[in-house]
Write a structure and sequence with these properties.
This protein is α/β, with parallel strands linked by helices. The chain is built from 43 helices and 14 strands. α1 crosses α3.
Amino acid sequence: MVVVETAILIASLYLGDKILEHIIQEEIWTKRILHKIFPPLTYKKHLVAIINKTIDEFEKNNPYDNSNGMFPFYHSQMFFEHLSMFILFNKGSLETINVDFKQFPKIIRPTRKNLIDFYNLFYLYASADSKLKKLFIEENYKSQIFKVTEIIEDIKETVDSIRKETTITKERIEELIVQKEKKKLTIQKTIDALNDQVSRQLGKQINSGKYLRNTFIETGNQKDHLRYLCDSVFYSEKCFDEIRILDFRYLDNFLKSKKHHGFDFDFEKIKLDKVSLNISNSSKLINEWLNYLEKKRQEIVDIKIASNEKSKFEYKFRDRIEDLYFLKSKVAIITEAAGQGKTNFLCDFAENFLIRREIPTVFLTGAEINATDIRQSFLKRIFPDSADYSFDELLAILKTYCHEQNKFFIIIIDGINENLVPILLSQNIETFVSDLQKHDFIRIVISCRTEYYQHNFINLEKSSFSNDLKQITSLRINHNDNDLNEKLFDIYFYHFNIKYNRISKKAYNQLVSNFLLLRIFCETYQNQRFDFIDNIYKEELFKRYYSLKSEEINKHLISNDEFKIKGTFDIKNFISNIVDFMIQNKVYINVPLDNIIEVPEYREMYVRFLDENILIKRDIQADEKGIFTSAEVVNFTFDEFRDFLISRYLIEILYKKSQSDFVSFIESEITKKSTLLEGCSTFLFFISRKCSDKYLKDIISIQSWFEAVFSRCIFSINNSQITENDKKMLGDILRKDIVPNNSIVYNLIYRYDITHYNKLNIDFLFELLSEFDEQQYEKCFVSEFGDDQWAHSQINQESLLNQINKIIDKRELNDNSSEHKRFELLIYMFTNKNDWEIQSIYKRYYFQHSDKGKEQLRKALESRNQKLVAKIKQFVENYEISL
C-alpha cells in the first residue's frame, strides 16, 4: 500500500491534481497522504525553530541598522516561504529569490554572498535536526522512489494519451510501450553514458591545461595502490604471488640455532581452491590474507632476541601489508599541495588504466558537485540530456554489470577543495560515501589540497567508513633522482614541442629542480626551437608567461556562458588588485579574497579561476574564526612569480606615481630580513637595466644589496647587453671580496665557450688573475676551492678535475674546441692544494697539444703572482719544455 501511495504522491507533485483526476477519482487520497507525511503542527514547530536559530546565528556576524525603517531579508514572510520550499522540495534559487525581493522596497537587499551563507547555515541546521529530517520528501521516500518508477511512468504515459486523444487504440498502446522501452535504462546505455562522461571530463581538463597527456611519470607506488583499490579482483593474484614468494628460511634457521621455535610461513594454505575471488567475496578473503600477514609480523616482533636480523624480516611485511590494505579498501583520498599534479595524476589514471581496462567510471570535479544534492550532480553529468533516471536506478543497472564482469564502479571526485561551500560538502559527502558502503561493487577516489583537507574534510577520517579508507599523501617526484629528472625534462619538452641543439648544465638544473618553473618555461616557449639554452632568463620568461596566460584566461572566462560576463573583462585587474593590496599593506602572503574582489557578483568566477590556474591559489587562513565567515585568502603559487609582479608594479605604478614612496618602500621592505629580498632585488635589477631612466638606475645601484645582486645576475644578462662598465664593476667586486666570490669564479670558469660568451668568460677570469698579486690571488681565487662536495660556499676541486680529466679519456680535441680553455685553467690552479694532481692532468694534455700548451704557459707567465710564476717555471723545467 505504501508503494502505491508513494506513487500517487509523486504523480500528484509531478502532474498536478487536476490531471491526476483522469486516472484517480478520489482526490482525497493525495490530501490524506500529504497530511500524513507533514503533520501541520510538527512541521511548523520544527521549521520555525530552525529558521529562528539560523537567523540568530547569522545576525551575530551580519548586524544591521534599522534606524531608517528598513528590515533585513530574513525577517520577511516571503523569505520564510522560500525556506519552506527549499527544505521540503529542494526548490528555489538565488536568482528567483532576488526577483521576489524587488517587490518589497522596505527589505534590505542581501548580497549573493549573504544568501549563500544564510542558506548554507540553514541547511546545516535543518539537516542535523532528526525530526525534521524525517519529514524530507527527498530523504523519507528516496528508498521507495525507484520501486515505483514504472508505476509513475505508466501514469505519465496514460496522462499524455488522455491529453491527446479520448480513445486509446491498440496501435497507440503499442506505440506507448515501444516509447517506454526506448527510454528504459539498459546496461549498454549506462556504460556508453559513463564512457562519454569521462571522455568529456578528460577533454575539459586537457583544454584547461590541467591534464598534460602522456607526461605523468610513475615514480612511486601511488598508481599501483590505486590500481589495487579500483580493480582488486584482478590484482589479487599479483598481490598473492608477491606474498607467497616471501622467503623466511634464513630466519627459521637462525631462530633454531638460538634454541627458539622456528618461523613457519605458509601463505599457500589460505589460497582459494574451489571458489574464485569475486566482488562478493573479495573483501572477506583479502581480510583473511591481511590478518595472516599481521599475525606473522607480530610473531617476529614478539621474538625475544635482540638482533638486526629480526627487524630486517619484520620490514619484509611492510609493503605487502600496505598493498593488501589498498586491495581491500573502498575509498582512497589523495592529498597534495597546490600545483603538484593531482588532476594530471587522476586524468592519466582514468585514461590509461580505467578506460583501457573497461572499468565503469564517473569523473567529476569538486566545482561540479552540488553540495546539497551530490547524487543529482552525478546524474546531470552522466545523463545531460535526460532527467528520466534516478541514482538508485543507475546503481541497480551497474550492480548487475559489475558482478557479471568482476569489475568495480569507480566514482572519482577531483579537488573537493574547489567546491564553493566546503563545510556543507564535507558533511554531505561523508553521508554520501557512507550510504554507498552498503554496495560492494563501488570504489570511490577523492582528491583534495592538503591544507583544505585538514581544515574542512578531516571528518572523513572519523567516519563510519574510516576502516575502509586509505590516503595517498604525496605525488611529488624525488628531485635527487637524476634519471627521473631527465625523463621528466624530455617528456615535457616533447609534449610542448620544444627543440634545442644545446642546453647548459645551469639551465637544465634550474628546470629539473623546480616542477613549476619547468611547466612555465614549456608553456611559454612551446613549439619553438633554440640553438643554445644557456640560461633561464626569468624576467623575460615571467613577462611572456603572464601575458600569455592572462590572454588565455580572459578568453576562457568570457567564452564560458556559465559566468555571463558582459563587456570587457581582464584578469590582470584582479591580479593587480592582489599586488596593490600587498604593497599598500606590506603583507605578501594571505591576501583576504573578499578584499580584492571589486564586483561581489563575480566572486564565484574568481574562485573558479583561482582553482583552475597555476598562477595564484586560494588558501585557508590559519586563524579562521567563524564557520561561515570568509576566511579564504589568496597566495601566489610561485614566490618568484609574486616577486616579479611586485617589482613590475613598483616601477610601472608606484615609481611613476611617487618617486619618494618608491624609494621609501624598497629601503624599508627589500632588506636582509624581508622575504622579498632575493626575488625583488633580482627583478628590480633586470627591469632597471632595460629602462632609460637614469634616476631609477641610480636609486637601484645605491641599495645595500645591489653589488651582491649584480655579481649574481650579470651572468643572466644576454651577451649583447654586457658593457665594459659591467666587466669593470665585476672585477672590482671580486677584488674587494665584498660578496662570496665563489659564484663569480664558478660562473666564469664554466663560460669556457668564448665564442658564445664573448664578453664575460673564462678569458676575462684569466685577465683578472694575471693582475692579482700573491695575496689577492690567494684570497680571491685559491681559497674558493675545496674538497667537500656538500659545501656550497666553495667550488669542489675534485669534481672539477674529474670533469676535465674525462675529456682526455673520451676524445681528441680539435684546434677550435672550446675545451682547450678548461685545460688552460689548470695552469692558474698550480698554487692550489693537491697541485701534483693538477699538474699531472695538465702534463697529459700538454704532450697531446704542445702548441696550444706553450701558448697557454707563456701567457700565464705574465702574471703578477710570483708564486704562480715559480710554479709554472718549475713545471716547465721538470718536463723539459722549451717555450
